[in-house]
Amino acid sequence: MNNNIPPITKNLLIINVLCFFGAIVAERYGIDADKILSLHFFMASDFNIGQLVTYMFMHAGFSHIFFNMFALWMFGRVLEQVWGPKRFLIYYMVCGIGAGLIQELVQFVEYETVLSNYTTVQTGYGLISMDEYLNMMRTVGASGAIYGILLAFGMLFPNSQMFVFPLPFPIKAKFFVIFYALLELLLGMSANDNVAHFAHLGGMLFGLILILYWKKKNGSGQIYY
Predict the structure, then answer these.
(1) What are phi and psi of 163, to 5 degrees?
(2) Residue 214 neighbours by CB distance under 10 Å
(3) Beta-sheet pairing, 138-139 with 39-40
(4) What's the CA gap between 184 and 51, in Å, rounded?
(5) CA angle, corner 91, sides to 190 and 150, nearest 5?
(6) Residue 225 confidence (pLDDT)
(7) How far apart are CA 71 and CA 175, in angstroms?
(8) Of the candidates 205, 142, 219, the residue with the CA atom closest to the CA atom of residue 177
(9) DSSP letters along 142-207, please?
């Protein structure tokens, strides 16, 4: 593998960074880009289907975009060099959109089991209507697509040695992916935070389905072409 960044990976990096800083500039002019482009719960009034794509290019802060783009640069360029730009772009988008769909499903379960019993919600800012609260249920970030990329790297190069901070020794890529999948499942079941853990798992799930489909379609003797 050469050190050049292939075209799709490079353009995804550029688009994400431009969107991040563009949202900051837009905010100074009174435009809430997050409200327009982030993925809303499908029962919210601000939802539109295009957000399943645009949400992947919005990020919640510098650390959010930095680690996502670092992983895209590290692993995405390898996959693109193996698969080619077209297949890599398809994979990236399918994982990202799939992650958004899983997030919508999780939010729907939450709505049906809990939120549908109420007409108002008490937040840290006071009592608000359920309609207003539903519009606050937003998802941003490329993490779903990135987790799909991690899965693909672990499947294509399972025995590659990786150094992961703070471990003082290398681990194989397949164990790294399994660890992160189990961690996201555990956090999704137990953590009370603002991280879309099930969206991360959704990206991995849709990535796995697509890879298995390619493998079956093209023969197990090839690297998922």
Answers:
(1) -95, 120
(2) 18
(3) antiparallel
(4) 23
(5) 45
(6) 44
(7) 17
(8) 205
(9) SHHHHHHHHHHHHHHSTT-EE--TT-SS-EEHHHHHHHHHHHHHHHHHH--SS--HHHHHHHHHHH
The residue with greater pLDDT, 222 or 74, is: 74
Please give the Cα distance from 58 to 199 (Å, whole number).
15
Q: What is the pLDDT of residues 156-197, one digit of tens each?
A: 998 888 777 666 778 888 888 888 888 888 888 876 777 888
> What is the enclosing helix (H) or strand (E) of 15?
helix 7-28
Q: Which of 43, 37, 6 is nearest to 19 (CA)?
A: 37
Question: What is the pLDDT, as a whole number, of residue 93?
Answer: 98
DSSP string of 123-142, one letter each residue: ETTEEEEHHHHHHT-EE--S
Q: How far is it, in rounded angstroms, from Cα 158 to Cα 173?
A: 5
What was the pLDDT predicted at 189? 82
Residue 123: pLDDT band with limits 50, 70, 90: confident
SS3 of 101, please? helix
DSSP for residue 76 = I
Q: Which of 181, 154, 149, 164 is nearest to 76 (CA)?
A: 149
Please give the C-alpha separations between residue 127 and each of 64, 110, 133, in angstroms, as whole numbers.
Answer: 30, 19, 10
The one-letter code for the residue type at 10 is K
Each residue's pLDDT tens digit, 48-95: 999 999 999 999 999 999 999 999 999 999 999 999 999 999 999 999
Residue whose structure tokens are 């379609």: 217
Indicate the DSSP class of residue 50: T
